[in-house]
Structure formats: C-alpha cells, structure tokens
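Course assignment 3, question 2. Fill in each field.
Student: A.L.
Task: Predict the tertiary structure for the chain below.
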Amino acid sequence: MDSLPLFHRLTGQPVILLGEGETGEAKRRLLERAGAVVVDDADAEARLAFIALGDPDAAALRLKARGLLVNVADRPDLCDFTLPSVLERGPVLIAVGTGGASAGLAKALRLRLETLLPATLGSLAQALHTARAALRSRWPDAAERRRALDAALEPRGPLDPLVDHDDGAVAEWLEKGVVSTSAVVEIILSSADPDDLTLRQARWLGRADLVAHDPGVPEAVLIRARADAERQELREGVSLARSPGLTVLIRLR
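Answer field:
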C-alpha cells in the first residue's frame, strides 16, 4: 500500500479547479457536492487543487511548487492524491480506489457494493451517532462498549448493517443489549497468504481484542486484525495474556 486513504473535510474550504470540458464540470459538481468553495484562480489560497486540462504539466508543477496537493485528471504520474469511486449512504461513505491503476475497476466494485448495502444504512449510522451519550451511559468502559457494538453489528446481530432496520432499532438494542462474554478461538493457518483465511476467520481477526500467535506468523496475516488489538507472540514458558473480550490464537501447521 503506497497511499493512505483519508476523508478530507471540504465544507467552506477553497479548492482550486483548473478545468475544461465535461471532465472539468464533473470535478466541479463533485467538489460542490462535498461543500467546497470552487475557485478558478491558480494563485488563490488553497490546500488542494484539481486540474482537468489538455496540457496540465506546467499548471501542475506551478501549484505543487506553492505547496498544494494536486490531482490531475488521467495523469496519475502527476497526482499527489487520487479520487476514489464513492458510495454514499447518508453519513456512511465507502471509497474504492485503485491508486490510479483503473478508475473503471473502482467504479465496477462500487456498483457491486451498491447492491449489497441497504438504503437504511445511513439512518443506522445517524442513530448510532445520536445514541453516543446513551452508549457511554450503558457501557462506561470503552472496551466493553466496543465489544457490545461489535456483537450487535456482526452478521445476524441486532444491528447487522447489511439488513434493513426501522428507526427504533438502536433504542431497542440499547434496552436489552448484552456484551459478548470473553472467548478464545483458534485459527490454524493453511498458508502464509492472508487471502486463504476463511470469512469466519477474517471476522474473528477483525473483532479480536488480543491476537496471540506463533513465531513466524506473517505480518500480512497479523495486519488483518484491528490496529488497536493487543499482540502477543506465543513462546514456551510464557503464559497467555488474559483478555476480557475475544482472544484469537493464530497457529502454524
């Protein structure tokens, strides 16, 4: 991965757009939809710039020299950042990017995801945001609160995000929600390739509070776990750490 996906807030912020034709207009519509103040002056004060010109090299170099981050249509070699294909469900934004390799592939993946995500996903996100104070009151401990949310949002859980929910789903869950008890599950690797993990194993890693693993387990597998999950290398004579939530053991064959 040579890029870090970020969501940049643009509401009320000036963004330079040097564009012409349909490509330039498409960039303008996208920026205005995100709340940006689009300016056509290359000398304006801004942090980001978009270029959609037939001969963009000179303009790109000039803006880069001023310290702006630049996106140039159809010229990934000149881009400081690329634009993903975006799926929107209210406050939920899913961005699919290929690092400029193929915008068509990113679009195809986004369209496929469109068919999987229910129209109520945005409402669910907003309801969870509104319930933040109630969540903290119900589960004051942050780790316990996260485990409760993980359990509610898992497949077939009361707040499964791939299922349509009515407006009262979050409130109903808060009334009777329970935190999943501590558990230990074991993953026996069939290979060093993380793509060989089963869907269930990938979900375990995504929920794990503690990842305990044999020496030699590839980093490519370990990074499939949450970034904030604790890690412990299993060694002879060293006791397994205790976790109040989910512990995943990763063993080599």
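Instructor remarks: DSSP finds nine helices and ten strands in the chain. Residues 21-33 form the longest helix (13 residues).
Grade: pending
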